[in-house]
Amino acid sequence: MGRLSGKVAIITGAASGMGLAGAQLFAKEGAQVVATDITVDVLREQVEEIIKDGGDAIAIELDVSKKESWDAVIEQTLAKYGKIDILVNNAGIHIAKGILEAELADWEKVMSINCTGVWLGMKSVIPHMQKNGKGAIINTSSIAGIIGGVSDAQGAAYSASKGAVRSLTKHAAQWFGKDHIRVNSVHPGAIFTGMVEKAGIKSQEEMGSHYKGLAPLPPYAGESMDIANAYLYLASDESKFVTGIELVVDGGWTTN
Ligand SMILES: NC(=O)c1ccc[n+]([C@@H]2O[C@H](COP(=O)([O-])OP(=O)(O)OC[C@H]3O[C@@H](n4cnc5c(N)ncnc54)[C@H](O)[C@@H]3O)[C@@H](O)[C@H]2O)c1
């Protein structure tokens, strides 16, 4: 028996980084995984690998900022697996522009994916979780939703969007606890992923060297599986009395 046996899990941003690690780990733990992403070619290749390794998964294209895209994912998920137990709202983008440098289009793009996307995801799955009598939702925020400075990598809208995810999570935890739906946020610190590679950093070690002195725990930057393990705990019944928490996975950065 896996820790997620019999559960159907939708994961957003599953083509890369933490979302991909989550999809791989959830499949190993027995979940039926609905892996979604806007970059669907890479996603399909990753899902083929999961299936080759004995997992049960499907790949579905999703733009988290579009309601009709969510509707299509829900329809296909129910057609294939018949229910939804878990949603991991992991997809996100970063634009390294501060309050003065950002244009309105930058602000709106980040907010529409990182914040509106999380709301749309919850709005789409909660009625099905209510019918199912339970559910677990995990929203990916950031330590940039808790503290400022280096942690937001000069992203004003990023920081605002992650703060919104933190408080929206607590709102949902309050209102849907009565339906046995648990809603928690995960707050990664510096984690070496595709997002970081796009910013020009080549390895976890290189990333760690930038954060030595901020995070006390070597190697000072984490890896995607560190976050996937947090997703797994919050998705599984091991956390059945846990809702509305901020699970910080940052090598101790926020103790600074
Ligand atoms: N890497 C870090 O240090 C770090 C730190 C704190 C929080 N986070 C958060 O963790 C989450 C995962 O990030 P990651 O580092 O694994 O990034 P990543 O870039 O490796 O993966 C993000 C995935 O989201 C997908 N995506 C982007 N826009 C989308 C959209 N509109 N609809 C659907 N999918 C979309 C991308 O195609 C990509 O596959 C994000 O929410 C990010 O903000 C990352």
Provide the β-strand percentage band: 15-25%
**Separation of termini?**
40 Å
What compounds sit in this structure? Answer: nicotinamide-adenine-dinucleotide
Mean pLDDT across all amino acids: 97
What does this structure look like?
The protein is α/β, with parallel strands linked by helices. It has helices at residues 17-28, 40-52, 67-81, 104-132, 156-176, 194-198, 204-211, 224-235; strands at 8-11, 32-37, 56-61, 86-89, 135-140, 181-188, 191-192, 222-223, 246-249. The strands form 2 sheets. The chain has a 7-stranded parallel beta sheet with strand order 3-2-1-4-5-6-9, sandwiched between helices. The chain has a two-stranded parallel ribbon with strand order 7-8. The chain is globular. Bound molecules: nicotinamide-adenine-dinucleotide.
Features:
about 260 residues; alpha/beta; single chain; 7-stranded parallel beta sheet; about 45% helix; about 15% strand; 8 helices; 9 strands; binds nicotinamide-adenine-dinucleotide
Lay out the secondary structure.
Elements: E1 8-11, H1 17-28, E2 32-37, H2 40-52, E3 56-61, H3 67-81, E4 86-89, H4 104-132, E5 135-140, H5 156-176, E6 181-188, E7 191-192, H6 194-198, H7 204-211, E8 222-223, H8 224-235, E9 246-249
Parallel strand pairs: 1-2, 1-4, 2-3, 4-5, 5-6, 6-9, 7-8
Helix pairs in contact: 1-8, 3-4, 4-5
The structure holds nicotinamide-adenine-dinucleotide.
